[in-house]
Amino acid sequence: MKRLISAGILLAFVVAAYLSSLIYIRKTCDETIELVKQCEADYKEGKNAYQTAEKIDEIWVDKEQTLSFFVNHDRIDEVELELSSLLLYSGTDNEILFYEHIETLKMLLYQIKEDSMINAHAIF
After folding, report:
1. Nearby residues of 16 by Cβ (< 8 Å), 6 or more positions away
2. What's this model's pTM, rounded to 2 decimal places?
């Protein structure tokens, strides 16, 4: 009976840890995606998109350490690389490279968000 209680407590802990990590990842990705969309809109309207890109970078730097517990480090590095490119091109008139990097960044954030969901592919 003691083993069953211990197993139940361990199972509850694992489920709680998974749910809290899932909520944290989804919240972080949603917040970042909204700012990326705002940055894109600012660039289209001719506003200062660089300031919005700096906000994105600040948020990502703040949450990166905690995300590294739950997300593959290669994914985090790819997002950081795209963020640095976004910072570079958000202050220029090179629209093609700006939109290329902003779409790549959105794709990477969506992938991180979707990879955190449990499904048959993630299990096997």
Report:
1. none
2. 0.82
